Amino acid sequence: MHRGTAGFLGGVIAGLIKLAIDQIAVSINISSSSMIYIISRILFVTSGIYSFISYIIYILFTGLLGWIISKIITGILVNFLYWGTVAGITIWALMSSIFLLLGTIDPTWSINFGTTVINFFSHIVLGVIITYAISISRTEVNH
Hints:
By secondary structure, this protein is mainly alpha-helical.
């Protein structure tokens, strides 16, 4: 499988796992916010009404992130755990900064401690799964 395809599929799988982590954390009252709530608020101004569409959009978005990461990380990816952690923290910081700039959603670090911790570590899981998928793909050689 090519790196771009592996990155996209890794992103889709990682997005599903991240959404599951978010939903479990909300249902057991560790976190007070999930990505589906945030996406619904950004795209549809209200939350909860378009949950299914928000799931699809988020999964496609994480697939796109995986593809982008596969293009940024070139060569053989030996230490996927390290680079996945770096990618996850970077994605978390960028998304929280975008939320801050939008002004409609509070960045995760300002909501509460549980939400911040869950969101931070679930983004690390997202990055690690994406980089693992990229690491098991074959390296493309341009002729």
